[in-house]
Design brief:
Elements (H helix, E strand, L loop, with lengths): L8 E10 L2 E10 L2 E6 L12 H4 L6 H11 L8 E8 L4 H9 L4 E7 L16 H13 L4 E5 L1 H17 L6 H20 L2 E5 L5 E5 L2 E5 L23 E2 L7 H10 L21 H7 L7 E4 L5 E5 L22 E6 L4 E5 L6 E10 L5 E5 L7 E7 L3 E10 L7 E6 L2 E12 L1
Parallel strand pairs: 4-5, 4-7, 5-6, 7-10, 11-14
Antiparallel strand pairs: 1-2, 2-3, 8-9, 11-12, 13-14, 15-18, 15-20, 16-17, 16-19, 17-18, 19-20
Helix pairs in contact: 3-7, 5-6
């Protein structure tokens, strides 16, 4: 009879600092259980606990942060069909999501890259302060919380493509890339390691069944709907994802948080494009070394009207900052990267009725509602699938369609396709 394999023993060390204050935690772990702990500042002794149990122990801020940094790289838990991993930002929406996932819930917060030169880095959803708020919410509810430090990976996979896109004359949407190609993959990987059967987030969206397939769908509250931002999430992942706030209004969610005594009930909304840290994208791109190469401003006939300070400083539909005097207001129509010319024209020239996008159709469709920016209304469109994505014939002209933005296609409330706009014409 073969002998059982010995349990793996590993040493986990984490630290945290703020100014001159410093904390360090050292754990010796066999399997999933801590057999030795040096963790001053924690509210309870950690020796004898599993990693899952230790993640629920509160402590002084730096000590708890150091423990989180020690646990994250090796975190594992025995699978449970009742356990739900909840992505937490430190705001009210994810706080209510974890509240509803009790009793066998575990919170997880991604520490993402934030520009240290930005003016408001502490408010964003992935800052150190947000991580602490999310952890405190979980610990107040007696739930474990884990922090994943993904700053460098986030900078490589989300921030740098954003910078490169603008440098190439596009208007990219980094939040779509973060959700569709980065954030959910990391969160689902963690959920598996944590033994969770599902991953929940605080997004305002729903999941709909169409032709035997699960698709992201609009939330019940049109004012808070985030289905557009989730449109590039692979439908195959939705078997393990839940959006518990999809039927709610923001007022309902804040009231539920207040009734539970959660501080997040009155917390303001986090900002979009969190890595900008509250800054203007032009200032951010300048700090990232994107060259502002001057060039001509021309009308639609090619006549030079003035000079610009860099194509990436302008986006389709922009009126302010053109700096050219004319008989009628002029708008940025497009940037010609071959000649480094900014093409401007009257507002009527912004209208586009044909759009080509690189992406995917999740279900076959001929007639859809197409949403071409997060804040723009959807318009009726005919869609034709192409080898690399789809082409749209819009039922009515849409202004300021920008290459680099994402076209999201709906049938009823369900997202049936999404792709990055590569070309638009009248």
């Amino acid at each position: 009879m073969p002998y059982p394999e010995p349990m793996r023993t590993q040493e986990l060390i984490g630290d945290s600092a703020h100014g001159e204050r410093y904390a360090v935690v050292r754990l010796l772990v066999e399997g999933e259980r801590i057999v030795e702990a040096d963790a001053a500042g924690m509210a309870e002794e950690l020796t004898g606990l599993t990693l899952l149990e230790a993640a629920a122990i509160p402590g002084e801020t730096l000590a708890a942060d150091a423990l989180a940094n020690a646990l994250a790289p090796a975190f594992r838990a025995t699978p449970s069909s009742e356990r739900v991993a909840v992505a937490m930002s430190g705001g009210v929406d994810s706080a209510v999501a974890v509240l509803r996932a009790r009793p066998d819930a575990i919170g997880v917060t991604l520490r993402l890259w934030v520009d240290p030169a930005g003016p408001d880095g502490e408010r964003v959803c992935c800052s150190p302060a947000a991580v602490i708020r999310a952890r405190q919410t979980c610990h107040r509810l007696g739930l474990p919380h884990v922090t994943l430090d993904l700053r460098e990976l986030h900078r490589e996979r989300v921030v740098q493509p954003f910078v490169s896109g603008y440098a190439a004359g596009l208007t990219p949407n980094p939040c779509m890339r973060c959700n569709g190609a980065f954030r959910f993959a990391e969160l689902l990987g963690f959920a598996k390691r944590a033994g969770a059967a599902a991953l929940w987030t605080g997004h305002y969206a729903r999941i709909a069944e169409r032709d035997g397939r699960r698709l992201v769908a609009r939330a019940a509250d049109p004012l808070k709907d985030q289905s557009y931002m989730l449109a590039t999430v692979d439908p195959r992942l939705l078997e393990r994802i839940g959006f518990p706030l999809g039927e709610e209004t923001k007022d309902d969610v804040r009231a539920e948080a207040a009734a539970a005594g959660l501080e997040a009930a009155t917390r303001p909304e986090s900002q979009e494009a969190c890595f900008l840290a509250g800054d203007d994208y032009r200032s951010f791109l300048t700090r990232q070394g994107v060259a502002a190469k001057p060039g001509p401003i021309v009308d639609e006939a090619g006549t030079e009207l003035g000079r610009h300070g860099g194509l990436w400083r302008y986006t389709a539909g922009q009126r302010r900052g053109i700096g050219v005097t004319a008989s009628e207001p002029l708008y940025a129509l497009a940037g010609d990267t071959r000649t480094n010319a900014l093409v401007v024209g009257p507002r009527r020239s912004l209208a586009r009725t044909r759009v080509v996008a690189r992406g995917r159709m999740y279900l076959p469709a001929r007639q859809v509602q197409a949403k071409l920016r997060y804040r723009s209304p959807a318009v009726e469109a005919k869609v034709q699938q192409t080898r690399t994505g789809f082409a749209l014939e819009l039922a009515e002209p849409v202004e300021a369609v920008a290459p680099g933005q994402v076209a999201v296609l709906y049938v009823d409330d369900a997202v049936v396709g999404a792709g990055v706009i590569s070309h638009a014409s009248g």
